[in-house]
Design brief:
Length: 553
């Protein structure tokens, strides 16, 4: 295996070349080559981090003495973003996009007070290149642009924070502050909830985050480079360090931290010591796909009548159990908080329990997708659930709350896999309509990408007729022929979606919903109500809101 120090040194050396290529690029073709160059560098850095995460963390704790300040701060910003995306278990594509964006922003030469990321976004826009990378860069420094967080790409504020922290960790002049000191300043001085949340999450990597690669001194004025926690004591393995010669001992020695004075980040030459820095491995959380979900479903192991066995099974899946508790709280008429799993399962009843468990399992799967549109999609799903339950009361066999909830989950799950939603800020308008809503409605018409997944999930959870209904909800009924059960259920599902859009994305879909309502009222024997009356009934449900802070909405 190539020496880790050499791999990091190569990455540092490639950044000035990337910066030079970016400065010279003035056509779509040359800019595209630069983006590809940044992508290759990101992959190289990612591979180095996966070999030894502690070596990546060490880049935050020392100053490479032979590298320019711009290069050092770009690497530090990249490492911070990499740590955040690992903690969040984001999909690879989302991680890679941010990694490439921060490298490009760091390599852009600043000619005035406008941040490099915004200058680069402007250049990419002028040449109509970059795609989502351009959108993310254009959303950085939203306060400077007098924009609100929800008006830019979801990942732009995190990119901004990483760039700002990287700059402060590697100032142009003076000594560099230690990361723990810098984060403490941010916590004390900021009232931005997003910033405080992100910093709190980053601290989960402590103490390795603050100690790997730091230099310390002892009472005899000997210097030590901290490598990793000792496996058999509370001490730390450290290499003795002679700063006047920039030399390190070959083998580490155990040192007690309370006997050492941890110094500010030191200037060090890239040497083989990076290979000796380490930390305990953190488990990776795989991102499941729909096939994984159905193959690993716990529903087949759920007892049909033994409450003790049901509790025992669900206690092994705490995330699903928590969603069941939330469901039980929302489902009881008094809205009394249910905190006991046994009580929650008993409240559903044995007939509805499999539906509730399936719904919780599917909702947990959606949480694990780590979509940057999760909040918006989650509320859209809740609106669809209430629409289905409201309309479903007028079927020959009325829908229960758990049936409506599970159908809404299955019908909305494809949206978490929508290829374009991740790139669209919630505030983006096209022809005075929210672009997110337009993309969602268009995607629902896809028989392969959307409807088949919905049908497969409904089939898996034994809602067979609804699975058939999902496949025919947008097909034209043959005039004069009787409506089959599947066609009626497909029509109800389509009307529920339309009613949802007419409220959740008002004033969108008013005319199309009105037209569909007239047809469905006769076919499904619904009460004779105007669209406005149905909308008012839907708005009476608790917890139905558009997922924007009321201060900004």
């Amino acid at each position: 295996m190539p020496d880790q120090s050499i791999n990091w040194l190569r990455s540092y050396q490639q950044l000035p070349l990337l910066s030079q290529a970016l400065a010279q690029a003035d056509t779509p073709e040359t800019l595209q080559r630069v983006i590809q160059q940044a992508r290759e560098l990101h992959i190289q850095l990612q591979q180095s981090s996966e070999i030894n995460l502690a070596a990546a963390m060490a880049q935050l704790s020392y100053i490479p003495s032979e590298e320019p300040a711009t290069v050092n701060r770009t690497i530090k910003s990249w490492v911070l973003l990499m740590l955040w995306t690992r903690l969040k278990h984001w999909p690879k594509a989302r991680r890679d996009l941010l990694g490439v964006a921060v490298l490009l922003a760091g390599c852009r030469t600043v000619h005035n007070k406008i941040p490099a990321a915004l200058q680069l976004a402007k250049k990419l826009k002028e040449h109509k290149i970059g795609g989502i990378i351009t959108t993310v860069l254009a959303g950085t420094f939203h306060r400077l642009q007098k924009r609100l967080p929800w008006q830019v790409h979801h990942d732009s504020p995190l990119l901004t924070l990483a760039i700002e922290l990287g700059y402060q960790l590697q100032p142009e002049k003076g000594s560099a502050p230690a990361l723990e000191v810098l984060l403490a300043r941010w916590i004390i001085g900021s009232n931005d909830e997003l910033v405080l949340t992100e910093i709190s999450q980053l601290i989960h990597y402590a103490p390795a985050l603050f100690l790997c690669g730091r230099v310390a001194s002892d009472e005899q004025d000997n210097f030590w480079l901290l490598c990793h926690a000792d496996n058999h004591s509370e001490g730390y393995q450290a290499l003795q360090y002679w700063p006047e010669h920039q030399r390190l001992a070959e083998h580490p020695t155990k040192r007690n931290l309370d006997e050492l004075n941890i110094l500010p980040p030191a200037k060090l030459i890239q040497q083989h010591w990076l290979a000796k820095v380490s930390m305990p491995k953190r488990p990776e959380v795989p991102i499941l796909n729909p096939n994984d979900l159905m193959q690993q479903s716990i529903l087949g192991s759920l007892s049909h009548s033994d409450l003790n066995a049901q509790v025992s099974l669900l206690e092994k899946h705490p995330a699903i159990a928590q969603l069941l508790l939330e469901n039980a709280t929302a489902s009881n008429r008094q809205k009394v908080a249910v905190n006991n799993l046994r009580h929650a399962l008993a409240s559903f009843g044995q007939a509805q329990l499999p539906l509730a468990v399936a719904r919780a399992e599917l909702q947990f799967y959606l949480q694990c997708q780590r979509s940057n549109q999760h909040a918006w999609l989650w509320q859209l799903q809740q609106a669809l659930y209430h629409s289905l339950f409201l309309l479903g009361q007028h079927l020959a066999q009325p829908l229960s709350q758990q049936q409506a909830g599970l159908i809404a989950c299955c019908a909305s799950t494809p949206l978490w896999h929508h290829p374009s939603l991740q790139a669209v800020p919630a505030s983006r308008l096209v022809q005075h309509q929210h672009l997110l809503s337009q993309l969602v409605q268009k995607y629902l018409l896809e028989p392969v990408k959307s409807q088949r997944l919905t049908a497969a999930l409904l089939h898996h959870y034994q809602l067979e007729s609804w699975a058939e209904g999902a496949m025919c909800q947008y097909t034209q009924h043959i005039e004069g022929m009787p409506w089959t059960l599947a066609e009626q259920q497909g029509l109800l599902l389509r009307l529920a979606w339309q009613l949802t859009f007419s409220v959740f994305c008002y004033p969108m879909a008013q005319q199309s919903t009105q037209h569909l309502l007239q047809q469905a009222t006769t076919t499904l024997s619904l009460p004779l109500k105007s669209l406005k009356e149905w909308q008012q009934l839907l708005l009476q449900y608790d917890g139905l809101f558009y997922p924007l802070n009321s201060e900004f909405a």
